[in-house]
Design a protein that fits this description.
Helix content: 55-70%
Distance between the termini: 20 Å
Structural class: mainly alpha
Order of helices and strands: HHHHEEHHHHHEEHH
Radius of gyration: 25 Å
Low-confidence stretches: none
Number of helices: 11
Strand order of the largest sheet: 1-2
Mean pLDDT: 86
Length: about 260
Amino acid sequence: MSTGVSNFVIRWINFLTMLVAVGVIGFGVWISTDHDGCRKSLTLPVLGLGGIIFLISIIGFMGALKNNSILLWMYLIMLCLILLGILVFTVLAFIITNPGSGHNVRGLRFKEYQLQDYSTWFLKELNNTHNWKHLRGCLVKADDCSDLSRRYKTLKQYKSAKLTPIEAGCCRPPFQCGYPAVNASYYDLSFHPVSSNKDCKIYKNSKSTKCYNCDSCKAGVAEYMKNEWRAVAIFNVVLFVVLSVIYFVGCCARRNAASSRLKS
């Protein structure tokens, strides 16, 4: 690849990623003004991500603009570290999210989830008191459970609904408890539970309690995180391929810059 073409490609790619980085930083600043502690906790990771993208982009852009082999070396080293990081994270994500799946329940369109089905990492993180206290607070604030009664006006609609893993695990008692549903947000707890599952006694109809302390809720969160991580892992595979192509072009630009320096 010629010097002009490789430098042109690297310049424009890094100019565009600089704009993306500015957008990410702006998003991080916006999150920092949010009163919701669940969103606000993402401020530092988002700002850090935007800062790293901007730093790498400016080094790559200036290296290609000035045809400077030293800056391009720095750019390639940082890009190589990112590629290694993406590769390690993607492999770990697929390993961690491999176990775990839902269980079909007779007469229901959605599945129920059991915490012991998931990987040791999920068990450790979700059974950590501090972690779960924060997650539980976010789940209560999200108010997904209260929204069920607004979405499903009749018991028939609710029973034929396809609930999300979090809705299925956190907003209702496990099916095996045998509690009759009165509506989408209320169960008749006067019946003696037919199962020894501890979640049966933990569930309450209260808006702030529901089944948020249940293992079934933790399992629903684990399934949600598993699906999100899988999506990120698949995106990372595509990103890895794209960055590998950029890395190759960057190598051409650095080699050309070094050759130009020797000739001069």
